[in-house]
Amino acid sequence: PTAGKQFKTGPKLPERICSIACHVDYQATQYAGHAQELAKDACHQGYNTIIAAGGDGTIHEVLNGIILSGQPGIRMGVVPVGTANDYAYSLARRPACKEPFSQLVDIGAMTTAGYRRYFANVAGIGFPGRVAELARRMKRLPARLRYTLAILRCMGASYQTDPIELNDLESRSYLMISAAVGMREGSYPLTPHALLDDGLFDLLLVGVLRRRDILRYFPRMLRGDIPTTDRRIQTDRKSKITLRSSKPIALHLDGEDPWVNLPSTLSTGDFQIEIEIIPKAIAMELVT
Q1: What is the C-alpha to C-alpha distance for residues 99 and 285, in angstroms, rounded to an integer?
Q2: What is the pLDDT of residues 220-238, one digit of tens each?
Q3: What angle do the packed helices 56-69 and 34-44 form, to 10 degrees?
Q4: Nearest to residue 248, comparing CAs of 231, 271, 226?
Q5: Where are the beta strands (DSSP E) in the chain?
Q6: Distance (Å, whole) CA 269 – CA 278
């Protein structure tokens, strides 16, 4: 209900979408996690197209509902009426296609101790996880201002790096690791060359940076100009990464807390996760 208040009876769908829709039902979410439940139920009720009207959090929930339903061939649409709309930004930059829902996109999956969660846009480990946690509390602010303030707060007394063993290599300290399907994270174009359907994550790996380094690089981040000439900042492209740590590390998936639905029998105490791409997993369409 807080996203896209201009819609009274549901979003206005373009004619090319309505031309293939025999009937459209609208459901408003009432609480966190409700979009996932609604999407999963709708798949079981026989709907073949689920459209998420909201931001990245709504997309995240709807995607998980569709995947967890186990129903094949479900198509997903996105009406970008959220705050950051990071994933919609990447969808809008795909090559145009006349036929609705004819393009498949990759999605990411995070697995730990048998617990699995899916994401559309990005998994952020370390610093971006802490930033996202703070940003989620600033619901009334515009996206970029929200994340900028959260970044500044995270650069205070709690500023830290995390020792992580990445892909079975020797443990080293990272400020952040981002595994991105899309181009933006927290409204910043951190992986500007990412493609939604190439079967690979665009990785941004940042080692130990001082606070003044981040402030120096910040204006370039706004333009998507990542300073890769700094040896502490690396980029890579992979379909799968594994992370291990002796302690829990902050993590977000599409800006959301991945541990919300963690079964009580599991614990995040042993931070060992796999993050992998699922190529061309779902038909996705930007609905504007």
Answers
A1: 10
A2: 887 889 888 899 999 999 9
A3: 40
A4: 271
A5: 49-54, 75-80, 104-112, 115-119, 122-126, 162-166, 172-174, 176-180, 201-206, 233-238, 240-245, 251-253, 271-286
A6: 26
**Residue whose token pair is 């809008």:** 92
Q: What one-character DSSP code corresponds to residue 54?
A: E
Q: Is the pTM of this model over 0.85?
A: yes
Backbone angles phi, psi at 11, to 5 degrees: -70, 150
Secondary structure of residue 101 in the 3-state scheme: coil
Please name the residue ranges forming H helices in the chain: 15-18, 34-44, 56-69, 86-91, 127-135, 143-154, 211-222
Q: Report whether pLDDT(124) > 90.
A: yes
Contact 87, 62 (CB under 8 A): no
The C-alpha atoms of residue 84 and residue 122 are separated, in whole angstroms, by 13
